[in-house]
């Protein structure tokens, strides 16, 4: 595959993912309805939502961002839902607080919380460990049947810049409990941020736009031929 081909594939994948996330936030989130009832009155999520002037929607606390007018999930209460497994919470990556307590969950992967960079409070059944381990939180404690994880610790170094695990010419950013993401410095781009200069946006989207028109035209011609054959 040529360099332009690899570049086109990468941009197409990023576009699809970004568009999918936008649509997911724009419609009513299914995760808010994954369990009967609403946020428990007087619970940690309820108190957080009230104090932050949020809006209760099913099992979620929503906040409207003025810049976009779109509701984002800032709190999720799926406690006492009789859940034995939790595999995907990706609709709630903007959550600040999540309550999973009083569920018969025996195992919970850290990957479930990948991308939850805003998460600062998690409530779990006492048999589970905090996402990313205790080192990923400022405070962890167990009281009765509940484990609380408070204050997510930035997985990057204290300056928030270059991490030993990130390539040269890149910056480190938190990406959930125990996770981090590397992004190229503004003066670099490409594989491992080795190419200096700005990203060729016009060229990339020119290729993407041209390819979209070409594929659409081919599909239109194909459908016309099928229609005539019938």
Brief rundown of the structure:
The chain is α+β, with helices and mostly antiparallel strands and 230 residues long. It has helices at residues 3-26, 44-51, 201-229, and strands at residues 55-57, 60-64, 71-77, 97-99, 121-125, 137-143, 146-152, 170-174, 180-184, 188-189, 195-196.
Write the layout of secondary structure elements.
Layout: H1 3-26, H2 44-51, E1 55-57, E2 60-64, E3 71-77, E4 97-99, E5 121-125, E6 137-143, E7 146-152, E8 170-174, E9 180-184, E10 188-189, E11 195-196, H3 201-229
Helix pairs in contact: 1-3
Give an overview of the whole structure.
The structure is a single chain. The protein has 230 residues and is α+β, with helices and mostly antiparallel strands. The protein is 27% helix and 22% strand. The chain is built from 3 helices and 11 strands. The chain has helices at residues 3-26, 44-51, 201-229; strands at 55-57, 60-64, 71-77, 97-99, 121-125, 137-143, 146-152, 170-174, 180-184, 188-189, 195-196. The protein has a 7-stranded mixed sheet, covered by helices on one side. It is extended. It starts with a helix and ends with a helix. Mean pLDDT is 81; it is low at 1-27 and 158-162.
């Amino acid at each position: 595959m040529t360099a332009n081909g690899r570049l086109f594939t990468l941009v197409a994948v990023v576009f699809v993912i970004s568009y999918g996330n936008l649509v997911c936030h724009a419609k009513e989130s299914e995760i808010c309805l994954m369990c009967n009832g609403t946020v428990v009155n007087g619970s940690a999520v309820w108190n957080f939502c009230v104090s932050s002037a949020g809006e209760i929607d099913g099992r979620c606390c929503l906040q409207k961002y003025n810049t976009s007018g779109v509701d984002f999930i800032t709190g999720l209460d799926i406690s006492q839902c009789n859940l034995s497994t939790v595999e995907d919470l990706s609709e709630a990556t903007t959550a600040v607080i999540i309550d999973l307590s009083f569920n018969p969950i025996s195992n919970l992967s850290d990957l479930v919380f990948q991308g939850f960079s805003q998460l600062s409070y998690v409530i779990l059944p006492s048999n589970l460990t905090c996402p990313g381990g205790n080192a990923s939180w400022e405070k962890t404690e167990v009281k009765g049947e509940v484990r609380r994880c408070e204050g997510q610790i930035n997985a990057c170094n204290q300056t928030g810049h270059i991490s030993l695990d990130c390539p040269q010419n890149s910056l480190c950013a938190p990406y959930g409990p125990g996770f981090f993401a590397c992004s190229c410095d503004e003066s670099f781009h490409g594989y491992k941020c080795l190419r200096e200069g700005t990203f060729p946006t016009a060229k990339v989207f020119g290729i993407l736009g041209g390819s979209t028109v070409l594929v659409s035209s081919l599909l239109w011609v194909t459908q016309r031929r099928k229609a005539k054959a019938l």
